[in-house]
Amino acid sequence: MDVKQFFKPLTFQFGSKWWIASTKLQIPPEGYLIINNKDNVCLGILDGSKVHDGSTTILGDISLRGLLVVYDNVNHKVGWVQSDCIKPRRVRSFPFFEA
């Protein structure tokens, strides 16, 4: 089943406050939908509104496929860039989201 015929990409926007540059993460339909062998489709993102302050969303492995993710624990940042894991490319910078 080609889910791109029926579903659009999801876009998450991080850091929309006036002093933080906005960073976006776009996930294609195959990155947030789970399709079984009978072509049943399930949403691969759970409602996180009951966690923390109501604004928590957890993105798991299905949503991060095709991305190279960098965790900067010292500076409390997460960055990502599109990547073909079979043939990784050299990247000079990542669009970081500052927590």
Would you kindly provide a written description of the structure presented here, covering whatever features stand out?
The protein contains no helices and 7 strands. It is mostly beta strands and 99 residues long. It has a single domain, classed as Cathepsin D, subunit A, domain 1, CATH 2.40.70. The strands form 3 sheets. The protein has a 3-stranded antiparallel sheet with strand order 5-6-7, with no helix packed on it. A hairpin with a 4-residue loop joins strand 5 and strand 6. The mean pLDDT is 77. Pfam families: TAXi_C (PF14541). It comes from Ilex paraguariensis. This is Peptidase A1 domain-containing protein.
Distance between the termini: 37 Å
How many helices? The count is 0
Mean pLDDT: 77
- Following the backbone from N to C, one meets helices and strands in this order, namely EEEEEEE
Silhouette: globular
Number of domains: 1
Poorly predicted runs are none
Based on the structure given, which CATH architecture is correct? Answer: Beta Barrel
CATH superfamily: Acid Proteases
How would you concisely characterize the structure shown here?
The protein is mainly β and 99 residues long. The protein is built from no helices and seven strands.
What are the salient characteristics of this protein?
two-stranded antiparallel ribbon, TAXi_C, Peptidase A1 domain-containing protein, 7 strands, 99 residues
Would you spell out the secondary-structure blueprint of this structure?
Layout: E1 10-14, E2 23-27, E3 33-35, E4 41-43, E5 67-72, E6 77-82, E7 96-98
Antiparallel strand pairs: 1-2, 3-4, 5-6, 6-7
